[in-house]
Amino acid sequence: QKEVEQNSGPLSVPEGAIASLNCTYSDRGSQSFFWYRQYSGKSPELIMSIYSNGDKEDGRFTAQLNKASQYVSLLIRDSQPSDSATYLCAVNSNNFNKFYFGSGTKLNVKP
Amino acid sequence: GAGVSQSPSNKVTEKGKDVELRCDPISGHTALYWYRQSLGQGLEFLIYFQGNSAPDKSGLPSDRFSAERTGGSVSTLTIQRTQQEDSAVYLCASSLQGSYEQYFGPGTRLTVT
What we know:
The complex is a heterodimer. Chain A contains no helices and eleven strands. By secondary structure, chain A is mostly beta strands. In chain A, strand 7 (about 60-65) and strand 8 (about 70-75) form a beta hairpin. Chain B is mainly β. Helices cover about 0% and strands about 45% of the residues of chain B. Chain B has strands spanning about 5, 10-15, 20-25, 30-35, 45-50, 65-70, 75-80, 90-95, 105, 110. Chain B is globular and about 40 Å long. Chain B starts with a strand and ends with a strand. The relative contact order of chain B is 0.34. The interface of A and B includes residues 4, 42, 46 and 90 of A.
């Protein structure tokens, strides 16, 4: 079992729709959760961090965390073609230094 | 301000040669991470430095891999006797102490022929 699991996609949504990206993790001791966006050929770019159960909103992005279910998600409202990228979920291990990344979900936003 | 920088951006080397990859973190960031990303894969943790503390080397895949960080700033990742399976993009990230929000450099694409 991988430490962080993501559906590889691609997830296709029309422009203006809500994109929902999901991630599950195996380490119950994890405390910090992150979403990164990675455009093709580029390095990951931090979008959101979340540390507590519930929702955290930042502009068009909402991160949701449920530690009991070991589940974290990212909602993108009013999706734009420029949101088309691979979204990586990252979770810290019980050893706070080490982070596990999922293999990413590829999102396509169609004009 | 300046972000994380890495050099070289691309490196092609022959199997069996040694390579050195460099990372210059964001000024003031005490934590530094190295990751490896193979084509179409997620990031694989390699090593973590925090200030002057002993590094966490638990992700290094073999003893051919080593890294150092001089003066708490610039870091060098060294791969000895490179193998074809070492071909990947090597990414460096830095963060403020206690933040865990990592900012990535542009990466070094390593190709072993």
